[in-house]
Amino acid sequence: MSLLRCDMQVMVDLDAPNPSNPTLKEYLHWMVTDIPATTDASFGRELVRYESPRPAIGIHRIVFALLRQKRRTCVYRPEVRENFSTQSFAQEYELSSPVAAAYFNCQREAGSGGRRFF
Predict the structure, then answer these.
(1) What radius of gyration do the chain's Cα atoms show?
(2) What kind of fold does domain 6-107 have according to CATH?
(3) How do residues 90-102 score in pLDDT, each as one tens digit?
(4) What are phi and psi of 45, to 5 degrees?
(5) Are 96 and 68 in contact (CB under 8 A)?
(6) Model's pTM, two decimal places?
(7) Cα gap 44→47, rounded to integer Å
(8) What's the order of all strands across the beta sheet hosting 27-36?
(9) Is 41 helix (H, G, I), strand (E, B) or coil?
(10) pLDDT in tens, 36-94
(11) Domain map of the chain by residue range?
């Protein structure tokens, strides 16, 4: 393993704003670049500040993907979070296909809004 190798991590919502009509997919929740090999995201450069998923409707798929960079500081902040494309971004900056990925489902907590009966 090389200390010169760097990775980039993204966290995206594939179902924004709702799973039936994901017009904002992929919604970018977090991006960290220049993560040195053998370390974690806390050692990288946060390009897009973490934003917690808060789905209003349905069950959302949230994906973490780790992509290999060719060199440090070769990636720049995307202009918007909405309609982000991990695949297009990787092609533009010559990143690898994901070398690791994880996902989880999340949904709105019960009782966090809606009608209130007195």
Answers:
(1) 16
(2) Phosphatidylethanolamine-binding Protein (3.90.280)
(3) 999 999 999 999 9
(4) -110, 115
(5) yes
(6) 0.86
(7) 9
(8) 45-48, 27-36, 6-13, 59-69, 98-107
(9) helix
(10) 988 999 999 999 999 999 998 999 999 999 999 988 877 899 999 999 999 999 999 99
(11) 6-107
